[in-house]
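Lecture notes, unit on protein representations.

Consider one protein chain, 593 amino acids long.
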Amino acid sequence: MALTLEQLNAAAPDAACAMLDGVYEHSPWIARQALAARPFRSLAHLQDQLQRAVDAAPLDARLALIRAHPELAGRAMVRQDLTAESTHEQTQAGLTQCSPEEFNRLQQLNADYNARFGFPFILAVRGARGTGLTRAQIIDEFARRLDNPPDIERDEALRNIHRIAQLRLADKFGQDLTLGNDIWDWQERLAVHSDPGYAEKGQLTVTYLTDAHRACAQRISHWMRDCGFDEVEIDAVGNVVGRYHADRPDALTLMTGSHYDTVRNGGKYDGRLGIFVPMACVRELHRQGRRLPYHLEVIGFAEEEGQRYRATFLGSGALIGDFKPQWLDQKDAQGITLREAMQHAGLCIDDIPKLRRDARRYLGFIEVHIEQGPVLYEMGLPLGIVTSINGSVRYQVQVLGVACHAGTTPMNRRRDAAAATAELALYLEQRAARDGDSVGTIGMLEVPSGSINVVPGECRFSLDLRAPSDPQRDALVNDVLAELATLCERRGVRYTLEETMRASAAPSAPDWQQRWERAVDALGVPVHRMPSGAGHDAMKLHEVMPQAMLFVRGQNAGISHNPRESTTRDDMQLAAQAMQGLLNDLAHDISTR
């Protein structure tokens, strides 16, 4: 029989502590401290208070908590001396069925890890879905984390302990995670489609209008129909558009969604999470036979990443009338023009201008997105409310010096293009850090026709500059370009500069941001506000209508644009519940006007 929060809130202190026994391994002090925060508003509130108790504890208490955990496939497992919870978790991950080779490998890893860190390796072996990692995944993660610095690995162990506790709490309280599980499964099933050259390696790459891209569009459209959308179409640029009708035909529309294309060898959640969360919400509305006092339009944007053509935000841009006809003549790496790709996909180019939405018929745009950074992960928070999407400017830069013999040219006679670039990179690092929340990146860097014994005569690189407001961004840009001019003159080299992209900052509309805040607070989750350093479809819709975003915590230190990008079914469940709360809040506001 599952526990209830009502029982926990009403129980005497000792009884309540006993109810939470086993959530944290051999550490009842955590429950005793967290119970001081009763009554708990939700399971997420309880979990947060348990985590805060650990995070506020002295270092020796946190180390004792780590050391209270058993080794994976270690001596305690062999002796059958694990707690019931640990036995269940290690069994579910298949660690009790290791081959002799796997068992020996784990024993060596345990020994190496303990020698390096002085505590056992901690991993939530049930994984992000809660159904168990494979033994190969466990061994790979074990080996990877051996390279961590000791303080980083200690924090990583504690985060895994909190994840284990989250899973154990869900079991104790019989938590219904249907929404999170289904959103997880949609993403896994969509990830089977990948472009040639990547699919064979088990890598995920879906670029605009490839066969994999079109297969994703078909799959999303079928799922939308299964969820109960009233209309589903693939539009003239490849966006998948689902509409769930209001309770009256003349109602305004709320738009939401994100993109389904990916970067090369990317992750499964960037963009796609923002399609599947609202899809799950529509499915629940349909199952309840419930209509809202506004239309809900969920869009899987066909292109946001700019990987195949230099036409970023092609999907969302078309909806605001920002599809540039000259893009049609752009060619991809195989020489296929955008026009040819669209015609091959059966898209009607002449219909693109008709996609422009009448902003007067829209309430606004909201977007759910994986954070793509470490902030929420390091703070132990599942959700974050975006205050603004950073403004950005991108350049392609060429520095031209003189190529000459590396052995015969004295150091004070060189006009080294690569050294000038390196000096700029160091300045950029220092200048961006001065603002606290500005960022600057040289992400692409090459010495064309470089040779080991030649002083570089040419260097080409990209320059990406971002800040939460346009004035702050422009100050960063001015300083970096001034430094580029100064150092090039001092070093006797020349440069060329091409601006390839400029995007204004997109501050969240205050009333929509507050709707997200109320929805998150209602879940019992701390409300954390943060800017978005990455660009999103919301910044395009921001040009014509109010927008606001919700971030979902990423696992693995929030890494994104990477195969290790991940989040948990539990955090996706909370994101779906937050969106349901926002939809209900909006419905109440409209109905009571």
